[in-house]
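Consider this:
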Amino acid sequence: MKQRMITALIAGLAAGTAHAGAADTGRTEGNLNVNGAQIHYVSVGNGTPMLLLHGYPLSGELFSRNRDALAAAGYRVITIDHRGYGKSVAPASAPGDLATYAADALGVMDQLGVPKAIIGGMSMGGPIAFEMWRTAPERFTGLILINTIANPAGIVEQNIWKGMAQKASTFGPQSLAPELLKDMLTGMTRMNRPGDAAFLTGIVKQASVAGDVAGAAVLATRPDSIPTLKTITVPTLIIEGVEDTVYPPEFSMKMMQNITGSKLVLIPGAAHAAIYEKADAANRAIIDWGRANNVR
């Protein structure tokens, strides 16, 4: 039964793997001119390419606790800041949309000499990864879906994202942090690890107003990707925080049921930013999946 593929991880399962780096991390970073924007990237490691796409309204630093551990396990981990986020800069005439975010990611792969990669997307990064699959499935060796969703936004969610765009426009990107942190991290983490909340707040503040507005529009108007799930033929890992209130586990279970051979890993004690909040467990899930599917 496919339900047997659901694996519940406990926080201590990956002890000894998180934040471990290789002796030679092969770290490079910089800005690339892609589709008229300046896209910031970080590349760590020298192995199998893995491109990780962040969610709204964050940056590639969301994966700061994953890069070294995954590089030590044999991956070249590439993270980017979508245009208008982090250290990336977009022209005023093209702040971003779903097709552009996907084209930017493929453009970074081109400029870094990466013909194929495991491509992972967290939250908004998931719809971007689906768009990349629809555009260029030959560029994938694997797919990782992290606290994301394939369903289109319903009426209530559409208005939530419209409200985020309006708030960013009125009060600035920093005003979104209180709205988002309560869902990014569990209450226990916010109380006991205030540094985690401060780190993610700092990332949220780096976004531009135009980026916040464009990303909110992408989330509000994203297409139905359920039909796309049935076309995915590469090994697929789905990572989900059990306490995610943005896109709860039910949505990840639906994705698993629609992607042949996919694996779902549920991480207890983690909310929407499970990849950061419980990085040890997420890293172990990715490493074990990669070995089992020979995508490393």
